[in-house]
Request: fold
Amino acid sequence: MPDKPLDLDFVRAFFPALDDGWAFMENAGGSLAPRTVIDRVRDYMTECHVQPGANAAIAREAEARMRKGHETVAAMINADPDEVVVGPSTTRNAIALAAALRDELVGGEVIVTNLDHEANNGHWRRLAESGVAVREWRVDPETAELEPETLRAMLSERTRLVAFSHCSNITGGPNPVAEIAATVHDAGGRVCVDGVAFAPHASVDVKALDVDFYLFSLYKTYGPHLGAMYGKREHLLKAKGQYFFFHGEDDLPLKMNPGAPNHELTAGCVGVGEYFEALAAHHLDEPADDLHGRMRQVFGIIARHEESLSARFLGFAADHPKIRVIGRTATDRDRRAPTFSFTVAGVRSQDVPALLEARGVAAGAGHFYAPRILDAVGVDPADGVVRCSLAHYNTLAEVDRLIAALREIARD
Ligand SMILES: Cc1ncc(COP(=O)(O)O)c(C=O)c1O
Reply:
């Protein structure tokens, strides 16, 4: 029997922030948190706000809750917990990683893209100051897409690392990560993948993708304000520790997490797992054996709903004479996340959010820390694009509200 379609009343009841009546469409900036997460953070702060691991029952309880949160994050991406750093943000994790790998990269080449957010980009580029050759894998300006063949031609025995994204936070278009990783491995390099714009929409399996490093932000994946970084154990062991000197080089993942993890927010990550467990129990007739598997099944149901949101929006926008959508206008779930960036002819992008706000839609405008891609497709990063980024709790009625607002704004 096919699984039930996504029950939006059930889903939306988990998110107290949805009660404010807004059509919230800045999810790529930060998703809303379900009450399971809010409760776990509050419980930790009220019940065990002490130094975890100290010699008292309450401190052991604190440590156990953090460990469970950490294990939840690892299960989300099918990783072992010691291979997952739960740090303050993706940007901070990427800074620590670039510093940790610097000595291994000096004398070789790092390839970055002009598609991506600066988090998995600028810190690698900066290694040029330390003697790393940095090259840029550029999008096709017609399509705003990275072509794997272009990368293939750039790879050589000097390639040490290729940093790219699983999905663009501007175009919503996913890249074939497993295929790219295999190509880079064949050339003797490693990959560092920014999964921030992908993880809120689909299951991530770092083992199946065979990536070397993978980053995503929990606060955009229905969790608290944290970032997670996976690294293959052998790479993390070899990387230079970024915490205090007495944390040994085999002290994983702590040595890669300067300042140590945030206590209550790490504990709060348990709530992300609980949210997906609730969705699984509500929707699945034959749930998989573990959290990762059940999340994969739930994301399959989510994808069908998100596909319908994309079809509704792009059905309006793709052929609109005054709206230019940046990137793919395909609606099928394997080909895009419901993140829509566009410009409106005759209206400054910077003016659009206020016009949408007056019509009950919360969205953003700007370059969203990915100015290079806007430059590449001929959009002035100073004005930027309007971005409406949806999540699974958005409704078709909200998309209709957006469309009605844009009809007025574009005066069609
Ligand atoms: C695609 C992408 N990568 C990386 C980041 C940076 O994430 P963080 O805020 O956790 O540093 C963002 C944030 O917007 C993003 O959209």
